[in-house]
């Protein structure tokens, strides 16, 4: 590879949510950069497809069918990596309900997957890196919802705001071990998650594209490149940061 700072040859990465969308694009790109990639997801078929994509391009992928809210299973999967250099905690779910109609079970489900699932991944990764003396990188997945909120987004944006605080706090605690912790907060990205918005999707996509100075929504690869930057030595002096690949939608202009 011509750019050594981005070269992950000889490194091991773990990607949650690797069976679809942003997680899949991230797993594929990290493998292209040379990493051995451990892919985790609840969706076994999606996992299989991602692993096949990586192997077809000559990379190395291992699959871990698991739910990120199952701490014991996640612990076992991370332990099976041996030395771990990169954790990309991407798995997440969308939920929309007005505040006055939000049920306890909605809040619990979204916080469990989108916050606790990320917390467990971060904890297992940081423990592994400290034990093995690895000066690794942890990348979490927040969202543009941390800046904008929006009707119906209480559960989702609260969980993503918690991910930001986790990222900043762990960055301060793990920094002395040489471990960097950063978040990516994507704007509207075309993935199966956003596709599930159904008929609202075309309208929202057009709206989001109009808000961007670039006049388009994002693709999963746009976010994968941000994760690669944060995972690699290219960002060696970057920690506790929130990177916003959002087409400039949050920029006052
Ligand atoms: P996606 O296409 O739905 O992919 C998410 C993957 O995570 C799916 O394979 C999903 O499986 C899996 N997953 C869900 N719950 C899980 C669990 N408990 N344990 C393990 N895997 C689980 O979504 P995406 O758009 O790529 O989103 C990826 C991340 O980016 C999420 O954290 C999301 O909040 C964040 N994000 C997305 C956007 C966007 O515009 N797309 C914007 C900002 C932030 P199932 O399909 O079976 O549920």
UniProtKB/TrEMBL annotation:
* A Pfam entry, by short name: adh_short_C2
Q: Which Gene3D superfamilies match?
A: NAD(P)-binding Rossmann-like Domain
Q: Name one GO molecular function term.
A: oxidoreductase activity
- Signal sequence bounds: none
Report keywords, A-Z: Oxidoreductase
Q: Which SUPFAM superfamilies match?
A: NAD(P)-binding Rossmann-fold domains (SSF51735)
Family statement: Belongs to the short-chain dehydrogenases/reductases (SDR) family.
Would you tell me the protein name for this molecule?
A: 3-oxoacyl-ACP reductase
């Amino acid at each position: 590879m011509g750019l050594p700072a981005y070269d992950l040859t000889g490194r091991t990465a773990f990607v949650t949510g690797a069976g679809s969308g942003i997680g899949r694009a991230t797993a594929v790109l990290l493998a292209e950069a040379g990493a051995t990639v451990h892919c985790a997801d609840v969706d076994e078929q999606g996992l299989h497809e991602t692993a096949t994509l990586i192997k077809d391009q000559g990379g190395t992928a291992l699959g871990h069918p698991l739910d990120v809210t199952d701490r014991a299973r996640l612990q076992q999967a991370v332990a099976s990596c041996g030395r771990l250099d990169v954790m990309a905690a991407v798995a997440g779910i969308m939920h929309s309900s007005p505040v006055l109609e939000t049920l306890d079970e909605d809040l619990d489900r979204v916080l469990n997957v989108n916050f606790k699932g990320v917390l467990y991944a971060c904890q297992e990764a940081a423990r592994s890196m400290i034990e093995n003396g690895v000066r690794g990188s942890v990348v979490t997945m927040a969202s543009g919802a941390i800046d904008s909120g929006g009707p119906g987004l209480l559960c989702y944006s609260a969980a993503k705001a918690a991910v930001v605080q986790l990222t900043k706090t762990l960055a301060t605690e793990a920094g002395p071990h040489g471990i960097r912790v950063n978040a990516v907060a994507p704007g509207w990205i075309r993935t199966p998650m956003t596709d599930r918005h159904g008929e609202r999707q075309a309208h929202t996509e057009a709206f989001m594209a109009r808000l961007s100075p670039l006049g388009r929504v994002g693709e999963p690869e746009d976010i994968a490149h941000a994760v690669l930057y944060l995972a690699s030595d290219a960002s060696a002096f970057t920690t506790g940061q929130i990177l916003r690949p959002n087409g400039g939608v949050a920029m006052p202009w």
